[in-house]
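Weekly sync notes, structure subgroup
Attendees: PM, AL, DS (notes)

Item 1: joint prediction request from the bench team. They want all two components modeled as one assembly rather than separately. Inputs as received:
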Amino acid sequence: MLGQQVPSKALGAAAKTGTLASSYIFSGTRGIGKTTIARIFAKTLNCAEGPAEDCCDQCQACIEIREGRCLDVLEVDAATHTGIDDIRELREAAQYPPGQERYRVFILDEAHQLSAAAWNGLLKVLEEPPQWCVFLFCTTEPHKIPATIESRSLHFAFRSPSPAQLKGHLQRVAQDEALEIDSDALDLLVKAADGSVRDGLSAMDQVRALVGQSVDAGSVRDALGLVPGEAIARYVEALTAGDTPAALEVVASMEESGQDLRSVAAEALEAVRRLALDLTLGGKADSGPFPEQLVYLGKVLDETETRLRQGGPQRTLLDLATIRMTRMAGLEKLEELVGRLEEISAGPRSPMGGNPSGRGPGGRGLGSEGPGGRGPGRGGPGGRGPGSGRPAGGPQRSAPASKPSTAGPPASRTDPDRVAHSGASARTGNDLADLSSQMQDSSPALAAVLRQAKSTHCDDSGRLRITLSQDAGEFVQARLSSDEGKQSLAGAWAALGYPKPRQVEILREASEAKTPSHKALSREEILEEARKDPAVRSLFERFGAVVLQSKSIEPEAGG
Amino acid sequence: MGSIEGQERAIAALGAMLETPATPPPLLFHGPEGCGKRTTALAFAAALVCSARQGLDACGVCSGCQRVRGAIAVSELRSKSSSQDRPMAYPDVGLISVPPRKTRISILQARDICQSMTSRPFEFERRIYIIEPADLLTPAAANSLLKTVEEPPSYGVLILVTAAPWALPVTLRSRLRRVSFRRLSEAVVVRHLRAMGLSEDEAQRRAHFARGSLSLAADLDLQARVRAIETWVAILERLSQGERAGALAVAASEAFAGEASSARLSLELLLTILRDLAASAVTADPLLLEVGTSERLSGVAELLIGSSGQRAVLVDRLAGELARFNRNPRLAVEGAVLALGGVLRNGDLPA
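Output from the run, pasted for the record:
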């Protein structure tokens, strides 16, 4: 049996020595030989040449069992005969010794469909069976077998054969049947088999019925109704390149040729997965698409495939997903860039800073794009509002070309705020971060508010000072200054290993003279201010950014 | 069977089975809606029992062919009558589908099939059962077919017909020989519609909407579609003036918020409208909607803001509404209307 050495050996030994359990469970995926082994075991137990490790397959008993007319070996379709009444009959039959053979064997195939009452009806028989009685349960869903049954049985979990084993097996069968088949075609069959020997063989039958005795990869694809490989390759290439018209054209031609668009999505997903594996494992991340983009494509393709299963207009759904993937792929790259820029500059933020609200690029995971980012901080292309409609496509699409060669997400992308603050003063910044994470468990709300703080300082007299940045909102100050807030802060500070402060003060960073009110700024002044920001400056210098819109942020928007 | 168009590969595979004396293995006919699976299954069954078969085609007059027609008639009668436990009228050929006032094919029906399969055919060489739509077998029913499908009797032929093969348990699928059907091309659909007596123009329009489904093209209510498109355009216009309440009122007053099937249809149409708008911004790809509505659509395009990428995100949300749809049609339509507000200029109410 292909890949089932362990159960074969154990069962052979049991049959030879006669040390049998009252019942056996054979579980595993479909089409890997559970029922077949159960039948061979029944033959081995009763073979006239025995007791031996294997059956002769020639004696009267073996022939009768093979032809299904042996009175002592009963194969039951447990998925059709699911009830307690069917089991009662079995239980009765088990009481009589076998007529001709050594053992009375009951094979219950598809046993997972038995009702709860039926299983319970078997309990006593399995616990103290007549000596001649053996029950074999075959199932694809072993978790549906009650624990009380499993504890009385010997459970063999059959493993799927490896793709290499399966390929070898299919090749041998093809040779035996004088079928000419090349290696690529075998690989496709192995893929179609998906770990099941039976599926592989039946796929081979299906191909042979259609194309005759000489089989290549193309005819396998055709006979199994698979999408042509080169079309999928073209589609994925267009997706990764952000080439919307080309990708839409592939979809149109697939529809025209009568392909199932759901399979197109499924196979594109598979191709994207392979590509992502090649990139990450092969270390070729410097050129072409990068893994995060592929993960994003995979996510959308997966969603789309699920939606196509649920019905709905196939072409419309796939077209829309295609447009989304090709248009958003560029934006993802831009997000990563902005995240990295922020890390480099890590300076104080101006109103035009890339990440005013924690909603910006760094804090959000892959694929979480959406119309949510309403602030001007999205760096231009995604901005909403009048005037930012069509032209937005421009910068978005040009962004990928200027991607720097160092790939891979910066380590600190998950929390750019903390990085930004630690830039001000390493010592106090770390304390602040520690304080914040210390409070994360006890009062998450305060911990979040604390991220607005600039620095923290505790002097010798036990006075803990927390300085807020000048643009922190009223709410932040009020929250931290409340009695509850002060107590929590003092407690968290002590928990960090410092002496417990006697007093907590919340201060606001002294306003620098040149900081005017936001509302007083004209458009030009805002722009001027923004251009001074290192992050924005490097956007202009490195990417030739274009100003589409500028807007000042209300202090509240920062919270 | 030879006259079935657009399914050359499936017909070739079935034809090869007819040429050998061996009984065909249990079959799974799968492919998109309205592409001829059921028609082919019945033609194949007739060819198997016909006493005067010529090539692929049954004669249509012999006893076997009449039995197949009888099976169809019985199936139709049963789907209208309330009693469902009558014995099969033609034991050798049967068409099994969802009983009246039920939503699935039950284990009782499946057991009936297994039981009947154990006895030899009454009149012919073969005993043929067609199960359609097979994706509506309950899990228990599908499981109870497993052993019969695995090792059918020498005379037994089982044909499972479905548009959603992935909805079948993998254990059952693994035991069936797949016969895949393709979506029909528009030309084939038009030809069939013409043969049904429709004018060239109407046949074109229907075929264009139906995207390769002959049954959909034939049953399509063209006027309802055009009306639904116009309703959506009206809703878009209201939303663009900031009138969310007005837009919702239009949605509610139109019939499409009421009946489940028409609400689903109109959401699909909305997706298609948005697809066309998004696609027309980047490519000269032909519109999915019929050409007559494209002028009105370009009017709507002026109302939209944002890049096509943003529109795609919105439509993604609408597709989500569609997926939620089975739970509450009215909510889905209203959710879609509100979501639409997000891409329209001035569509936002003041915060």
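Discussion: Chain A touches chain B through 66 residues (CB under 8 Å).
Action: AL to compare against the crosslinking data before next sync.
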